[in-house]
Amino acid sequence: MDQVAAFVSALIYIFVIIDPFASLPLFLTLTSKHNEKELRRTARDAVLIAGAIALVFLFAGNLILSVLSVDFKSFRIGGGIVLGLLGLETVLGFQFSKNNRDEKSAITTLIATPLLTGPGLITALIIMVGEQGYAIPLAATLVALFLSWAVLDNAAKILRITGHQPISIVAKVMGLFLLAIGVGYIKSAVGF
User: What is the pTM assigned to this prediction?
Assistant: First the structure.
């Protein structure tokens, strides 16, 4: 696969996992008392924190696996399960875990992780670096985070134009892709 195709594939892959559209309703709920300037600052800060977390795992993820004595196949299976569960959460509209999402002091952090950079993205980055090296996953992550910032920065406008239903539909379709990616991880780790 040439570099451009690999980059585009990685970008789509990462953007589907980040799925800022699924975060829009919660983002708007958590920031409902913010003025526009505060909303934009929250979007920016959340993406910066998400980016910092993503970069740590992009560059040190394999080292972390090594220190914890976790082999790549086991991580791929575990990551596939996590991605599959995240996809099921999005598609079916329920949660496997409860997060305290009501504390105003933690809004930015809650948006950054687990919403933008959670177990799904961390898993994907470690696996992508193992398969492709650093350049393509790094570039794709930076562009996907920029696109996510653009979505969150314009959240109120997007919701005003589209309403809740189209955003929900896009989020569910992205969740289905996330489920398929998780199944693919498991299949490749066990040799199918």
Answer: 0.79
- Cβ 141 vs Cβ 16: under 8 Å: no
pLDDT at 98: 61
Full residue range of the structural domain in which residue 110 is found = 3-190
Which H, E and C letters describe the chain, residue by residue? CCHHHHHHHHHHHHHHHHCHHHHHHHHHHHCCCCCHHHHHHHHHHHHHHHHHHHHHHHHHHHHHHHHCCCCHHHHHHHHHHHHHHHHHHHHHCCCCCCCCCCCHHHHHHHHHHHHHCCHHHHHHHHHHHHHHCCHHHHHHHHHHHHHHHHHHHCHHHHHHHHCHHHHHHHHHHHHHHHHHHHHHHHHHHHCC
pLDDT 10s digits, 176-186: 887 888 888 88
Dist CA 65 CA 75 (whole Å): 8
pLDDT at residue 49, as a whole number:
93
Low-confidence ranges of the chain (pLDDT < 70): 1, 96-106
Structure-token pair, residue 65: 């696996």
What is the tally of structural domains in the chain?
1
Residue 148: partners with Cβ closer than 8 Å, 6 or more residues away: 15, 18, 20, 47, 50, 116
